[in-house]
Please model this.
Amino acid sequence: MTAFTLSPNERFRGAKGPVVLVVLDGVGVGAGDEADAVKIAATPALDSMWAPGARCTLRAHGTFVGLPTDGDMGNSEVGHNALGCGRVFDQGAKLVDRAIATGALFEGDTWKAILDRCGRGGALHLIGLLSDGNVHSHIDQLIALIRHAAADGVKKIYVHALTDGRDVGAQSALIYVDQLEEVLGDLRANGVDAAFASGGGRMLVTMDRYGADWRIVERGWNAHVHGEAPHRFSSMRRAIESFRGDNPEISDQNLPPFVIERDGQPLAPMQDGDCAICFNFRGDRAIEISRAFDDDDLDAFDRGRRPDVLYAGMMEYDGDTHVPEHFLVEPPAIDRTMGEYLAHNQVSQLAIAETQKFGHVTYFWNGNRSGRFDDALETYLEVPSDRVSFDERPWMKAAEITDRLVAELRTGTHRFVRVNYANGDMVGHTGSFAATVVAVEVMDLMLARLRRVVDELQGILLVTADHGNADEMFQHGGDGHVVREKKTGVPVVKTSHTLNPVPFVIYDPKRSDQYEIDPARAEAAGIANVTATCLELLGFRSPDDYEPSLLRFK
Model:
């Protein structure tokens, strides 16, 4: 026996047909009030499967997915890590916080190389998401980098700030701008040229993922590196106020690219000998801008003249392709994922999603590893996402995914299947309540289609989510009621993830006399427990160090 050999589950031989795990991205279990698009949506398929013994709710936030505290929202990255590896690993924010607190970050070779360049006259540029959302970045970590760089003698520090509006309030950017401006002002008073240099909203500038739209990266590259953008302003605050003046409803995530100017010229285009750090710790939306700096052969867009810049990421964003070449904090070492175990035990697997979440069912699912474990046993299918605002097409590519998935299931090739429907998360992030209700209803239609096929093939269908979003579309106050605009009484939109639990349901008409979900175990469980549950339904015992299965056999 090898280290990856799975023992048979003596209590259950496994489903005759495929075991299909559906991730309804961004679908939590909310308060059931006017803010809860999941509850308001018509979901007859999910409702009919929500049967005693086959249902429970699971935690998908905070310490249940490796984040620092239970006040931290879950996200798709850590959620799919947990679902794919069956254990809870310390994740990005926690790793970076520890590296800063212990000083390990500032003792590494990359930081020392940055100081060496800056000591010879180079500027330090910091690119990333400016908020305290703690999903992609945290302003406290950025401030720690800035202050430490100044203390280490760096004399030119420029921030290229991407406004959030998704993981925090839709129009909260000025809170973080003012907070950071105070820090930069203190440094200027002590002889450091410290300032904002460029910016833009995260959904239009720099933070594309999975190659969905390289034009987003191109806008950021031109603004951050070349100091070129359609708009110029004297300050970060002036930029945001100007855009809001033109469109009072604009979300921070949708601000166009801009540069800060001084004496009529871009303040800080990058020069030979400079250094740049992407201070995002999460990988999916940092890989492409990292490739733009590091990849000599990149042809996704015209980068113009590339200055000689030492670029580093906060972390290694892709451990398989080693992007970026230089980074400050080591990523979590996630080994022995479910996919690796199944490959070693000759279990065929299918992973399918549209572009927006394709990396989640592959790269993140496999423990931040982008390759397959066994090309002969694994099939990865990507359905290209639309390049429009998702509230305009809330159905996204759900039907196309299901069409392809149904065809694949009927081949009989795949024993375990994982599929992500991105609608609840991507449409939920737009803040459009009506569109999000449609998105949830579309996903439910897909569950109805899949259920019929799983019945036909005598398989088992499992449904869960990686975190909440669509379940809380308006902000709630401390009293639990929806917060409203004082003048209009309109609910204040919430575009971020939630702290709510997520649903978990098993559809298996033949299960009633064989097993059920153990309510006592489910009471304290998180989504990492889904992994062992899937392995048991495939006919295996899960590894001893996995979070335990949710099943109780009769």
Notes: The mean pLDDT is 95.
